[in-house]
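Hey,
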Amino acid sequence: MSGKPKPKDADVLALETVSKMAREQADMELATMKNNMNAVHNVGLISGRAQAFRAMRLIAEFLEYKQIAQLIDNEEHLKISGVTSTDDYLEQLGLGRSTAYNNLKIARTLTAEEVQLLGQVGFTRRDLLSYASLPDEKRLEIREGKVINLESASREEIKDLIEQVIVEKATAVEDAQATVKAKDRRLEDKEKEIQKLHKELTKLEDRAAAREMTAEEDAFLQKMKNLRMGFDGYMLKADPDAAMSGLADITPRMRAALISNLQYIRMQALAAYDTAVMTYGNPTINPEVAAECEAFEQEYEAWAKQQASEA
């Protein structure tokens, strides 16, 4: 009995099975990339074997996390007893949460070819994370050589390009946020204006109810009152004494301009009055104006012709 191995716990066996499957898949992908590793060795001859080994470790680590990401995305890890979340699974594998999530982002976003190529120029895991954080369309432009040749560019040149894109993205986000805030402020201002108008409408309705009028009728009467007050204020400026006050020498042209201006105001006011009486008046309200309106129409037509001829 002492020579027989102790049976393993079912959970441990399940975890080992999942891990074994992940490593076998990673070994298969490593085997398919064996020919591409010659490029890494060439880089090692140029920039040192240490960098070549770092590139190889980076690719191996990437492939391992690629398999872990697939297991997690397919929810295979939840089949292990006691594992209810990704954090539980990462803890069982002995992986730090922050580092693991960064590596999973790299594994989910990049391809093995990208990691291999960037590893050859000396990219670190942090550099890969920055590259993986770029918008898809920007990363595609870099990968396809539209903005830089990855095969001939140096690590610093690629990093500078990545930082430039990150700054542009941050600026675009800030501009978008500023636009949203400006729209929010405008919406708030409109909401305040709506609330103010609602309060005024409620006030008008209450006042109209007290006067036994509709809110529309009360508002119209107030509008006419405000119009009269505004006209009175304007007429203070058109008052002959006020207009001529302070002038040292009143010339004939100035006298004519004053009288012509007041005549213009008179004719326009009488025209509006005539229209109001003929359109909205009635004998009960204006019994005296029926004959006056006809006479004024003739006077206004003559004045209008005179204005047209002078123009």
